[in-house]
Amino acid sequence: MHIIVGGCGRVGAELAERLSDEGHDVVVIDNDQGSFAKIGINFNGETVLGDITDREVLSRAGIERADAVAAVTPSDNANLMAVQIAGRLFDVPHTVARLFNPQREPSYRKMGVRYISETSMIVAAVRNDIQPDSFPVHLAESTDQVQVVEVLVTAAGRGVSVAEVESEGDTRVAKYIRGTRSRIPRQDDRFLTDDVVVCAVKRSGAARLRTLLAGGT
């Protein structure tokens, strides 16, 4: 895969290194030349100096042939703009934005932007651990065969029931979010467009889940 990483802070540098180690073609963009020193000496990818929201800079990074873009700068606005440019103007199939302000999460969901909210993850983990009798928070590693994922339901998934999602035995629905409310699912519950479905899924069942609820997107 040809992957562009926007931002070469600690997160961007480590992400670029790991992707490169896995054999991907990685290009890192940052507007500070000194930031590239954070990348380890075994990195086999390329670096591009510039703004991740600049179309010319993205073109130099190979956006036209990119399979994925990860925007992980310290700026929510820059990250959002970068993934929107990648997805809407260059049809990059996989994009994800780093998000610092958790108040923007509903807007990102509504826009269909895939994001990682570190603040929400940390708050949830700490809140969980300080409560008695709480379940531990699990984060899936790359070697895990089961992932905990969120799927935004598109028009293709409208009317699909929880029972249909779980019918193959490779997926279990934990909850779904409709508007501002989270709901514990029943087997006969049917999803609506823009619902966010949280479920555990085997890697082998991920493609079926995407097709069922999001039309393969």
Provide a concise account of the structure shown.
With 217 residues, this protein is α/β, with parallel strands linked by helices. The chain is 30% helix and 24% strand.
Structural write-up:
There is one protein chain. The protein has 217 residues and is an alpha/beta fold. Helix content is 30%, strand content 24%. The protein has two domains: 2-121, 3-Layer(aba) Sandwich (Rossmann fold), CATH 3.40.50.720; 146-214, Alpha-Beta Plaits (2-Layer Sandwich). The chain contains seven helices and ten strands. The protein has a six-stranded parallel β-sheet with strand order 3-2-1-4-5-6, sandwiched between helices. It has a four-stranded antiparallel β-sheet with strand order 7-10-8-9, with helices on one face. Strand 8 (171-178) and strand 9 form a beta hairpin.
Rg, rounded, reads 18 Å
Low-pLDDT sequence parts: none
Query: In DSSP terms, counting alpha (H) and pi (I) runs of 4 or more, how many helices?
Result: 7
Helix content range: 25-40%
Name given to the CATH homologous superfamily of the largest domain: NAD(P)-binding Rossmann-like Domain
Q: Could you give the count of β-strands?
A: 10
Secondary-structure arrangement, i.e. CATH architecture of the largest domain: 3-Layer(aba) Sandwich
Tell me about the largest β-sheet: 6 strands, parallel
The CATH class assignment of the largest domain is Alpha Beta
Number of domains: 2
